[in-house]
Amino acid sequence: MAGTEDIANDDVEVPLYASPANVLKLLKVEQKRNKLDSQKNELQQQADSAISSLYKNILLYVAYTGGIIYFHTTELPSAIAFNVSILSMCLFMTGLFFHTSWAKSMITRRDGYIEFFAERHKRLRVDARILVELENNRRRRRLAANIADNSEGPLIDMASFMTRCKTIYDAADFYDFLKVYHKKINLSWVLGGVYVLFVLIIAFFNYYYKQGQDYSFSD
């Protein structure tokens, strides 16, 4: 991490420029980084689509089973309502398991791509750090020798060069991608668990409430 300290604490005392060779290398690194970012964005869109579909299906199941439970509490005898409520809950859990597993497989199936991208990203970070170290050494030698910089070719002042290298070095890691989407998938399981508890409570309440009504009518 030697290069990062130089990036963060870089005070340019004289107007020096990065060497044309290193500027060209930086431009190539930036091109690779841009291509990598576009591939990451494409993966992110696919993952967003899978998560969005998962949440829509969860809402659909919630609305569907919620409507059935309301029908139970108003129309069906207590024993039948209880059994159908439990059946509805089981159907909901089956659907939730299917759709959540599908969304998770859609994302984890791309683990190979993500590992490949992460490795390439790591190499870009190393390339950026090496460029920074080369330029810092070059700048120190020139300052010590008091040599004017009359470089020809693509010119980037040192501050801008360091900033662009730092941007590449500090870019978000691809492993963050997996963490975010697996958190969303785990949230769907939590929502399913909360909903199952809700269904059970309503089913038991409905069962005992209607049993009480049945006893009062029989009396």
Automatic annotation (TrEMBL):
Transmembrane intervals? 54-73, 79-100, 187-209
Coiled-coil residue spans: 26-53
Alphabetized UniProt keyword annotations: Coiled coil, Membrane, Transmembrane, Transmembrane helix
- UniProt name for this protein: Uncharacterized protein
Q: Which organism is it from?
A: Nicotiana tabacum
Q: Which gene encodes it?
A: LOC107807081
